[in-house]
UniProtKB/TrEMBL annotation:
Protein EC: 3.5.1.2
Gene that specifies this protein: glsA
Organism, scientific name: Niveibacterium umoris
Highest classification ranks of the organism: Bacteria, Pseudomonadati, Pseudomonadota, Betaproteobacteria, Rhodocyclales
Domain of life where this protein originates: Bacteria
Full protein name: Glutaminase
Catalytic activity: L-glutamine + H2O = L-glutamate + NH4(+)
Coiled-coil ranges from the UniProt annotation: none
Quaternary data: Homotetramer.
Family: Belongs to the glutaminase family.
GO molecular function: glutaminase activity
Presence of keyword Acetylation: yes
Amino acid sequence: MKSPIQSYLESLHAELSSLRSGEVASYIPELTKADPDWFGICVVTVDGVAYTAGDTAQRFTIQSVSKPFVYATALADKGRDFVGRRVGVEPSGDAFNSISLHPRTGAPLNPMINAGAIASAGMAAGTTAEQQWERIADSLGVFMGRPITLDEAVYRSESDTGFRNRAIAWMLKNFGIIDGDPMAVLENYFRQCSVLVDCRDLAYMAATLANGGVHPLTGRRALPAPDVERVLSVMATCGMYDYAGSWLYEVGLPAKSGVGGGIIAVLPGRFGIAICSPPLDEKGNSVRGIEVCKRLSRDFGLHLFNKA
Ligand code: GLN
């Protein structure tokens, strides 16, 4: 017999398929190839059980959903104090590509905007950019529960057109936030954004955070337990860019979106949620993804501040 959660997800998916607003990201030329009809929802419990509806095996690029996981890697490798000196934990209220740096120290306001994410990529363990990439790739693979692969065309496309991110990386170099060659660190950031995922992969990554940092199926620890609350905190306050406040108000879960159309949300101790749907609103968040999370939160009382 079908579980009630499975039936619920299928009817929610059918209902929200008719939601047609939003535009597929076009500022990275290769991303325009995404099909606006791709739509998948996946919920993975901390026991590793997956519930899926729609296109959950369709691959797309992770984009900014990689940011909390690479921040986690920096925390694990360099420790909270070192990382805290180089990236803040304050919401910027600005767009994802804003150059929001602390006026005196140059530290990006948080790791969920591009500036903070590029800085985080530069803090992965390794003495060369190649070693740092190996570390990032390995870490993302532990979160996902399988080795990662890249969409080379998206990577090239972003590297060929990422002038604004290049300016940000040089600013970070100017302030001593990046050691070594900022262009090599930036290429690693472009690579991490080009990692191919499907909705299921993202839900397992979210479930790993929900499960205290241990992948529910492989049993491998992806980050030290004390770092989980740090990562979830910045996701809660900064994960949805300049929609973060409204998101916390309406949905009440730590989350992260990406311009590929992915969104993850985490209910600590219970489950991870992932949605794939490429059409984005003007802030760069998946339109259907937001709607799915609003509905799940409301229908199941998931808001973290309503647990009395
Ligand atoms: N790779 C994208 C960029 O840096 C990621 C942005 C996003 O997903 N919001 O522009």
